[in-house]
Amino acid sequence: MRTHNDDTEPASLPSQTVIVTGGNSGLGYGCASALLLASPSWHVIIACRDPGRAQKAVEKLRDSARPGSRVETMELDLASLASVRSFAAKLKDRLKAGELPPLHGLVCNAAVQGARTFTADGFESTFGVSHLGHYLLVNLMLPLMEKPARIAVVASGVHDPAELAKVPASIGVPVPAWNTPKALARGELGPEAANDNAAADRGRRYSTTKLANVYFTYALERRLPEGITVNAFDPGLMPGTGLAREYPAVLRFAWHSILPRVIPLLRLVLLKNIHRAEESGKALARLIVDPALVSTNGKYFEGLREIPSSVESYDKDRAEELWRDSATLTGIEPLP
Predict the structure, then answer these.
(1) Distance of alpha carbon 224 from alpha carbon 138, whole angstroms
(2) Got the DSSP string for 153-218?
(3) Is-contact 94 107, C-beta < 8 A?
(4) What element of type H or E holds 267?
(5) Cα angle: 315, vertex 108, 118; to 5 degrees
(6) In this predicted model, what pLDDT tens digit does every residue of 4-47 receive, in sequence order?
(7) SS3 74
(8) 247 belongs to the catalytic site
(9) Which of 29, 206, 215, 218 does the annotation list as catalytic?
(10) Is the pTM value of this prediction over 0.85?
(11) What is the tens place of the pLDDT at every residue in 248-271?
(12) Residue 135 φ/ψ, nearest 5 degrees
């Protein structure tokens, strides 16, 4: 039974809107749930490509939300630049009409990890969804945001070879294989990937795109006006989430049915940076709501801790090339 999110109830309206891409499950759902429990009240928009799944998530979120907060879904397919533009246009109209409170937050969370496929615009899907779709979305959202505003970009520790060295090879992913952004968009990884089999290829595309997420964060930080911040976030390993949807059957079973039950043990014997999606979701939401982080900008967080990202991720020339080429690929006039 709903007590505070029913549209007919005259509850006080939330004062701020925040968008969470891929907020219908896993980390995004955990983040949305934490935002709905935060103060001040938030109007959370779950931006998802599957309206049916997103609406089911919204119904569940409403049951546990803080009084006064609200949650809804809007359709967004990051694998389609047309969908990103349509989402932005609809959001702009709704903000202008006063249907939504001012936009103060954006969580770039959605990602894919699977076999090599291509988006509607011909981009390799891992890079196209996780980076290019979000690149366009952020550039379209910035003119709509009211200060103070915060952006959080979900990256991963797999972008860092030093972090990957701590993980047993049997469950790890290969280190990034950087290439020019236009080559990555075509699905062409760097020379380190030359002998990859299908599983290694899938993992390396993911780690390389997560490096792109960090480059993007740092390039964006250098361009943001005062009053808007961006930070990157590593949620750690999260057994049970949807990233394993294309793993072999045995690994999928372990990922969804066994590993989530033994997380405390895994932290002791394998890796400290292993969390439930709810835990990492709360840490991600903190980047949007914690007053102590209002001026924190261009940083990298592992859960609650601010840490350095990989040595490779501080290559400013690569980050600037990624910024420029992403503008060309998405057809937008970006921040200079």
Answers:
(1) 11
(2) EE--GGG-HHHHTTS-TTT--PPP----HHHHHHT---GGGTT--HHHHHHHHHHHHHHHHHHHHH
(3) no
(4) helix 263-269
(5) 80
(6) 344 434 356 689 999 999 999 999 999 999 999 997 689 999 99
(7) strand
(8) no
(9) 206
(10) yes
(11) 665 555 545 556 655 665 665 566
(12) -60, -50
